[in-house]
Structure formats: structure tokens, C-alpha cells
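Usage

Read records sequentially. Each one opens with the input sequence:
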Amino acid sequence: MPTIKSSYLGNLRTASEHLQSGVKILTDAPVDNNGKGEAFSPTDLVASALGSCMVTIMGIMANRDAVSLDGLSWEVTKVMQSSPRKISEIIVDFHWENPVEDETMIKKLKNAAKTCPVALSLDPGIKQTLNFDF
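and closes with the structure output:
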């Protein structure tokens, strides 16, 4: 069974629906690539998926060890190259207001982020730069 159903809406915009939940997202081509930039671009979603996947896997590990990730946030910067046009680097800056003080757990969480399924699935030519502010 399919996971996602998508359609082209015209003017470089697409709509996708997650079939299990019914949640919908739109994409637009970015302004620097003939689009309106009124929604995530497909490459924005790739970059966003990396940060979200990393935190999801960190959360699974934290839950197993009864550690709260409250106050954890992150920012993602996508770097594009022009020829060929593709993502050259994704930078994820993690910030944690009240991190756990256990250094072993911190190391486990950082390793979990680095080995999430999206990180492992991206082409090795895409540089993944991770900055942990904790």
C-alpha cells in the first residue's frame, strides 16, 4: 500500500497527503529556481527531514532511558550548489536549554542523531554538519 499520494497543482506547486493520517503538505519551487517560494521546496523537506529524524531517534533513546528532551530545539540550514543544482550541505544546529548532565547519555544521544535513517540514507556527497549546543 502506498504511503503518500501526491498531485501537481500547476505553477510549480505540488500537494502530498500522508495516507495513514490524512495530513497534507504543499511544496513550491524556491524563488531562486523559478518558483514563488510560498511553501517548503522539495529540497527544504529533505533538509527538514534530516533534523526531524535525528531528534526522533534521540527521543526514542531518551524515552527508553527515562530522559526528558524538553527544551531541545534545532535549526536547519540547507546549502545548495548550482551545477548540478543539488544540496551540497545540511547544517543542523541543536540547542538544549536544560540538557541532561550525564555525559554518557549525551554521547548516546549525539550518536543516535548521527545514525538516524535519513542521515544514513542521504548521498555521502551531501555534507552533514552537526553542531550540538549542549
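Summary fields computed downstream for this record:
- Strands lie at 4-10, 13-18, 24-28, 72-82, 85-96, 127-133.
- Helices lie at 42-64, 103-114, 117-121.
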